[in-house]
Amino acid sequence: MKVLREDREDIGVSVLRLNRPEARNALDLEMRLELVAELDAIEGNDAIRATVITGDERAFAAGADIALLAKAGPAEIHRLGLARLWGRIFAHPKPLLAAVNGYAFGGGFELALLCDIMVGGPGTRLGLPEIKLGIMPGGGGTQRLVRLIGRHRAMGLLLSGEPIDGETAEKWGILTELAASDAEVLPRTIERAAAIAAMPPLAVEMIKSAVTEGADLPLEAALRIEQRNMQILFDTPDQKARMDAFLQKRRR
C-alpha cells in the first residue's frame, strides 16, 4: 500500500500517510488513486470528521514521479487525468490538514495546497521546481499559489524553481502554523484536526463549502453562498442545543 490509513475514531480524525520512502514519497499514479479512494471512504464514515495527510520525517512528497512523466506526450498526460484527481481531493467536504515535514516539491506542494490547513516545521521546504525540467506545474501550482500569496511572490517561486523554508512559508501565509520543531509537526496537526472534529459537523461542512465555493466568485455572489449556508445552520439540532446552552450559562 502506498497510502497508509489510521483511523482515530476516538478523536474523529483519520491520518493518511504517503508511503513510498524509497522515492521520498514521489507521487505516482497508484499513490494518487489510493489517496482519492481513501478520502472517498472517509467521506462516508461519519465517525471521521477531519483528515490529516502526511509523509515521513524526510519528505511529505518530493513531487510527481518523473519516471511517470518523462516519456509522456500531451495525449498521455491528458489521459492520466492527474489534475482531475487533485480536483476530487479539493472537493472533499471534510477538513483536510497537511502535516508537512521535509520536502514538499512540485505535485507534493500542490497536494498540500489542496488542504485547508498546513502545518510545517523548521525543516520544511516548499517549492515548485518544474521549470528546471522544462515544464510547469499542472496541478494548481500556478493558480492556487498566486491566490494565496500574490502574483509577485508566486512568480518568484515559479520562475526560479527554488524552495523556501518553513519560516518563510509561515511569514508568507502558506503555513497555518510553524511548529517549534519538526518532531512536533504531526502531533500539532493531529491536535488541530481533533479540535475541528469536536465542532458541530454541519457547521464545519458549511464553512468549508462557503470558503471553497466563494473563493473565486465576485464578492456579491460569494456573500449569497455565505448567507445560504448560514441560514441552513439555523435548522439544525446542534444550533438549537448550543445556543440554548449558551443562554442558560449566561443566566447563571
From TrEMBL:
Entries under Pfam families matching the protein: ECH_1 (PF00378)
GO-annotated molecular function: lyase activity
tRNA processing in keyword set: no
GO biological process, one term: fatty acid beta-oxidation
InterPro entries, sorted: ClpP/crotonase-like_dom_sf (IPR029045), Enoyl-CoA_hyd/isom_CS (IPR018376), Enoyl-CoA_hydra/iso (IPR001753), Enoyl-CoA_hydra_C (IPR014748)
Record keywords, A-Z: Lyase
Family stated for the protein in its record: Belongs to the enoyl-CoA hydratase/isomerase family.
Protein's name according to its UniProt entry: Enoyl-CoA hydratase/carnithine racemase
